[in-house]
Design brief:
This protein has about 350 residues and is α+β, with helices and mostly antiparallel strands. Helix content is about 25%, strand content about 25%. α2 runs parallel beside α5 and α7 packs across α9. It starts with a helix and ends with a helix.
Length: about 350
């Protein structure tokens, strides 16, 4: 599992540019699934064919990550950019980034006004991303345009590392963790149900791939595989989120205060029964923050019973985050047990 998660984490794929991630999953599953296709949106749909008369289940894990996109090149050769997905401005300043071009990656540094030249009032404020720029070493606009183009995606690179106590650190664990879980489940499942393992696109910018792929597949039920936010570090109160890393995968009962998903009661019952039958520690979450592909899926057609299973990951939506690898492995065991019990 660590090797797979490392490959997925170190691959790059901001929303709309998920190709590297898709290729990793395709290579992993080419000998394990009955069918594999990439649809018009870029979703990867893999199929484990079940027996006639048995239910169909969609496993949705979004392949995309947060990032940036080049929006303007000024006369001095500095790049302006937009944010793709939810990124806090304070984490951008002075980060090393890489612009993905047709001719390969171009390194750059996100710059801004030096602290030595900021006023006391300015120093107390977070620098907005619109006041930042990317320095690629170009001498002027013409020189920069030889290296990059408007619309090029901008990514971060982080080396995957192992930490003590079953923790691992890497880039884009939201949602390469879900991709790893989906991939391993598709390798292991022997269920009589038909299982669609779907790597969805553009979740971070509107749950787009989940919407189109679930409409196409119209499964009897669905499980979104993602990550969630733990409260086991400074700055977070237990009442804000009692979820912790290392205490098992999280079964999400509601997110975004119900504006996103309120999990289907049947799916909740079946998932908890599967966890207890397999002796897997699990956590229950009722959240008021973000949502997942499950929101788009459960509203498709005439409604699809859906639930979300999410290992906890610290510091998501930054260039590096942390997850407990045992939580990830237990998420695989939980989903396999769920499918086998069908």
């Amino acid at each position: 599992m660590k090797d797979l998660l490392k490959k997925l984490s170190e691959a790059c794929g901001i929303s709309g540019f998920e190709d590297e991630v898709r290729e990793v999953i395709k290579d992993e599953l080419k000998d394990y699934v009955d069918e594999m296709e990439t649809d018009v949106m870029g979703n990867l749909i893999t199929t484990h064919k079940g027996k006639e008369g048995k239910p169909s289940v969609m496993l949705a894990s979004h392949m995309d990550e947060i990032g940036l996109m080049v929006s303007y090149i000024d006369d001095q050769g500095f790049l302006r950019f937009i944010k793709i997905g939810g990124i806090n401005d304070q984490m951008l300043s002075n980060q090393e980034v890489f612009i993905q071009t047709e001719n390969g990656e171009v390194p750059g540094i996100i710059g801004s006004k030096p602290p030595h030249l900021t006023s006391a009032a300015e120093a107390k404020k977070i620098i907005p991303f619109k006041d930042m720029f990317i320095d690629i070493g170009a001498k002027d606009k013409e020189d920069a345009e030889k290296m990059v183009s408007i619309g090029d995606p901008v990514v971060f690179h982080t080396t995957f590392k192992e930490y003590p106590n079953d923790l691992v650190m890497g880039k884009a664990l939201d949602n390469r963790v879900g991709c790893a879980v989906m991939t391993e489940v598709m390798k292991q499942t022997t269920t009589d149900a038909t299982v669609y393992g779907v790597g969805t696109v553009q979740e971070e910018v509107g749950l787009k791939g989940a919407k189109t792929s679930s409409f196409k597949l119209n499964p009897d039920m669905a499980i979104a595989l993602d990550v969630t936010i733990p409260g086991d570090h400074p700055g977070v109160k237990p009442e804000d989120t009692p979820i912790a890393t290392g205490k098992g995968p999280v079964i999400v009962l509601a997110d975004a205060s119900g504006r996103g998903l309120i999990s289907n009661p049947m799916m909740k019952k079946l998932m908890i029964e599967a966890a207890e039958a397999a002796g897997i520690d699990y956590q229950l979450e009722v959240g008021d923050g973000g949502t997942t592909d499950a929101t788009a899926i459960h509203l498709n057609r005439d409604g699809i019973p859906t639930i979300t299973v999410s290992p906890a990951s610290r510091y998501i939506h930054t260039p590096q985050s942390i997850v407990n690898i045992k939580d990830v492995e237990d998420a695989v065991k939980l989903i396999v047990e769920f499918l086998n019990r069908l």
